[in-house]
Amino acid sequence: MSDDHPTVDLNFERRSESEMRRRARAFYEEISQRRSVREFSEEPIPLDVVRDCIRTAGTAPSGANKQPWTFVLITDDAVKSEIRRAAEQKEREFYEERATEQWLEDLAHLGTDWRKPYLEEAPALIAVMAQTRPADEGLHYYVKESVGIACGFLIAALHRAGLATLTHTPSPMGFLRDILDRPENETPYLLLPVGYPANGCEVPDIDKKAVNEILVEV
Questions:
Q1: In whole angstroms, what is the distance from residue 218 CA to residue 208 CA?
Q2: Backbone dihedral region of 128: left (phi > 0), alpha (psi from -120 to 50 degrees) or beta?
Q3: Where are the domains of the chain?
Q4: Of 42-46, 132-136, 177-181, which gets the smallest average pLDDT?
Q5: Is 166 left (phi over 0), alpha (psi -120 to 50) or beta?
Q6: 119-146 pLDDT per residue, tens
Q7: pTM of the prediction?
Q8: Alpha helix locations (H) across 46-93?
Q9: Which residues have C-beta within 8 Å of that of residue 104, sequence separation ≥ 6?
Q10: Which of 52, 65, 189, 214 could make an S-S bridge to 130, C-beta 3.0–4.6 Å?
Q11: Helices 143-161 and 17-31, interaxial angle, to 10°?
Q12: What's the CATH number for 64-197?
């Protein structure tokens, strides 16, 4: 152990190659079933499960281990309604004024528009805030990259726990900081509705790229 950077023993379990292949394939098969859901049941969900998933997100690597994130768990109906009103205002401006024709064409197959009822219907919302700097003195590093990795952990954990999500990024999202009374050093990064899919929920019929389209080996 060094005096200037204390260390501890790594807790790592080495697995057989057959077990590695089994686990890698099993996780792929499970996570490949994850879909973005826009039709949520209003049925309550176990919030302790959501908190554990947020705890998982907090284990993500980050620049200089600064952990530049805050997760705001929102279940209050009045706050969700306020968020929906503000988000729909921004989304309507986007769809009617700012989006290019190409952008709208690219979105058409998803069947989305400025209306976002799921922001009220989902029993929980998670607002992910990126801390541009610490609350006290100092600096954060690679904030967007770090928070993005944590969001990936969070989405995977929620799916594995049996909950549906949607990655929602109304632009701009400054209203979230105001509604949630967050400090100036926090910038809204992602709004994640969480819950069970509604009965009869349908999702767009889309495909993902094959591995040979996304993998380059050198």
A1: 23
A2: beta
A3: 64-197
A4: 132-136
A5: beta
A6: 999 999 999 999 999 988 899 999 999 9
A7: 0.94
A8: 47-57, 77-93
A9: 95
A10: 189
A11: 90
A12: 3.40.109.10
